[in-house]
């Protein structure tokens, strides 16, 4: 939302190499010694959300601290990500133990949807576009 707050779980602070109070983690990617990406040095990070994290759109910003001072990168829409669900994770509320259920409800590219009112229900084909 427009006013994220740590107390409400809508603003998450994750120190590198530690776990946040809400279970998020961020780890540095192990790279090849002396390897440098085009455009100069880079730091690649792995961000992991806990299974009970709220689904939705997240804005990502990185704050760095060095001997020279602090720098907080501004929010950039290109860094936004959408957290959905993970039916393969036993700790997620939407976990599906049966492979047949995963194939039908998650991995299908098309299916049927039902719409209308309680007294007048209709159905049609739907391309999920996954």
Automatic annotation (TrEMBL):
Q: Name one Pfam family in it.
A: Transglut_N
Every copy of the Transglutaminase N-terminal domain together lies at: 1-64
Show the segment(s) annotated as Disordered: 21-43
Q: Which UniProt keywords apply?
A: Transferase
GO MF annotation, one: protein-glutamine gamma-glutamyltransferase activity
Keyword Transferase, does the record have it? yes
Q: Where is the composition biased (Acidic residues)?
A: 26-35
For this protein, the parts annotated as crossing the membrane are: none
Family per similarity comment = Belongs to the transglutaminase superfamily. Transglutaminase family.
What PANTHER family does its record include?
A: PROTEIN-GLUTAMINE GAMMA-GLUTAMYLTRANSFERASE, PROTEIN-GLUTAMINE GAMMA-GLUTAMYLTRANSFERASE K
Record's protein name: TGM1 glutamyltransferase
Source organism per entry reads Herpetotheres cachinnans
Lineage in the entry?
A: Eukaryota, Metazoa, Chordata, Craniata, Vertebrata
